[in-house]
Specification:
118 residues; mainly alpha; two-stranded antiparallel sheet; 4 helices; 2 strands; 75% helix; elongated
Length: 118
């Protein structure tokens, strides 16, 4: 079988493993700098490619909506519909990752300030 080429945004999205690794490195000693780097790289390598991907796939989604024509299929469903579903789920996961990272960062920063006062 022939396999379709990946979308251009999928290549930089592969780097979205980097924020997870930085987050894991921040845990052993409550390293705030690794956590901040994890949050920044989440925006750069996770959220930004998803936004770009949604924009890149929009003409195909528009063609599907207006004319009912789809050229790629995944398990009998149009690939654009499936990919938008995947993008929405991935955006939610990364949004929650950023939310909880911010909560953890605030907690670590507060505990660090309390230790300095003592």
């Amino acid at each position: 079988d022939r396999v379709a080429r990946p979308y251009q945004w999928e290549y930089p999205y592969l780097l979205s493993i980097l924020p997870s690794l930085l987050g894991l490195l921040s845990f052993p000693r409550n390293n705030i700098s690794y956590l901040v780097l994890s949050m920044i790289s989440t925006g750069l390598f996770s959220v930004a490619p998803l936004i770009y991907g949604a924009m890149e796939m929009f003409p195909m989604a528009q063609q599907l909506y207006r004319h009912g024509k789809a050229y790629r299929f995944i398990f009998g469903f149009s690939a654009v519909s499936i990919m938008y579903l995947v993008v929405v789920v991935a955006a939610q996961v990364h949004g929650w990752q950023l939310y909880y990272s911010k909560k953890l960062l605030d907690s670590w920063f507060t505990s660090t300030q309390e230790k300095k006062k003592k």
